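User: Could you go from structure to sequence for me? I need the amino acid at each position, not a summary. Structure tokens:
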């Protein structure tokens, strides 16, 4: 055999076995890359949904605190599940309007409902109700604020206590379940009532 015939032909390309190996490696690499990409997308969606859920919860709590900080009078009943307040709201014309605002937490369903009116049509029946069933019936038409709410360790959600001597304060201990098993968000506040001038509306 001549020396020229002993030299392998490097121009002949890949063998079938090499081609199969390269294809298998390429497929495995594509599967790994695809899995990583899908995981990143799912994580981003989960993080966005968690942030959105937390923002919604914080909005509910901010609105509740805002209502209470403008309150002149409050009544807590229903074993701490119902609070009705007389508060002042700015109208579109720029003047202040007296309003009755009510919040009801339904222990059975975990729902939080809220009503706000310039009369006591919604709040008077709720305050005068003498049983849980009657309160639930009186608040059934109130707009739903949020589900997945809970009391904190069985404590009353709303309370009314003396604060700063003669002043009263509404206490809130409310828990909102977070997105898909994340730690719940607790709202624990004590908001002092502020005497407002010229609020003659009765919420009873």
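Assistant: Here is the amino acid at each position, in order:
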């Amino acid at each position: 055999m001549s020396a020229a015939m002993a030299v392998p032909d490097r121009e002949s390309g890949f063998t079938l076995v090499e081609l199969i190996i390269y294809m298998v490696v390429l497929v495995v690499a594509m599967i790994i890359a695809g899995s990583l990409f899908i995981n990143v997308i799912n994580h981003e969606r989960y993080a966005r949904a968690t942030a959105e859920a937390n923002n919604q919860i914080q909005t509910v709590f901010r609105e509740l605190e805002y209502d209470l900080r403008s309150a002149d009078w409050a009544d807590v009943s229903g074993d701490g599940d119902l609070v009705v307040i007389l508060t002042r709201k700015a109208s579109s014309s720029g003047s202040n309007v007296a309003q009755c605002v009510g919040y009801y937490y339904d222990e059975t369903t975990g729902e939080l409902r809220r009503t706000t009116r310039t009369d006591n049509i919604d709040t008077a029946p709720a305050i005068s109700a003498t049983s849980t069933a009657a309160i639930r019936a009186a608040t059934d038409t109130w707009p739903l604020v949020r589900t997945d709410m809970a009391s904190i360790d069985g404590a009353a959600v709303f309370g009314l206590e003396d604060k700063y001597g003669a002043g009263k304060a509404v206490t809130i201990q409310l828990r909102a379940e977070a997105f898909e098993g994340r730690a719940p968000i607790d709202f624990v506040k004590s908001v002092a009532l502020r005497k407002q001038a010229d609020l003659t509306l009765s919420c009873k």
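One structural detail worth keeping in mind: The mean pLDDT is 86.
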